[in-house]
Design brief:
Helix content: over 70%
Radius of gyration: 17 Å
Order of helices and strands: HHHHHHHHHH
Number of strands: 0
Distance between the termini: 60 Å
Oligomer: single chain
Strand content: under 5%
């Protein structure tokens, strides 16, 4: 019965999210998570809740929702969801102004995406890492992380190919 209720809550949360009612979506995802008995599914709901809280402008609640979920996915060798969970923690920490902690979580996300073979997601994480370094005035480190992210992309877009060429030529 709780599983059916959790599924219904999750569907309502997704609808609320799609309609832009992020606070209600976060609340509903949280309720769904609390009713699920399967830990990985509950962790998935907590990550959805984190994204909704971040969209609602509440990074503290977003961080609290995502915190500790990555370890559950790692224990289950679900590296894709582990990477997403680390990324959710990082995004919340970044919004809280805790850039160094966010950078470390993004690094963990990149490692998880590497294990999962998710080169696009890994690239996205490296771009976020580069953004942090750029905001800190560490241009060379930012360029390094841009290059690291692009190096793992199997089928780069035209834009990515151009950027890679510029990075290789040191055309900055």
């Amino acid at each position: 019965m709780n599983e059916i209720t959790a599924k219904s809550l999750s569907e309502s949360a997704r609808t609320a999210y799609q309609e832009g009612d992020f606070e209600n979506a976060a609340r509903l995802f949280g309720e769904a998570a609390s009713r699920l008995t399967e830990k990985l599914e509950a962790a998935e709901m907590k990550n959805n809740q984190s994204v909704a809280w971040l969209q609602a402008g509440n990074p503290k609640a977003a961080y609290e929702a995502a915190r500790d979920t990555a370890q559950l996915f790692a224990q289950a060798s679900d590296f894709r969801r582990e990477g997403i969970a680390w990324s959710n923690e990082a995004a919340a920490l970044q919004a809280l102004g805790r850039a160094n902690e966010a950078f470390e979580k993004y690094r963990l996300a990149a490692e998880a995406f590497q294990r999962a073979g998710e080169d696009k997601m890994r690239n996205d994480v490296y771009q976020a890492m580069a953004g942090i370094k750029l905001k800190q005035g560490k241009v060379m480190e930012a360029l390094f992380h841009m290059q690291m992210g692009l190096a793992g992309v199997k089928h780069p877009t035209l834009k990515q190919k151009i950027l890679l060429s510029m990075l290789r030529l040191r055309a900055w």
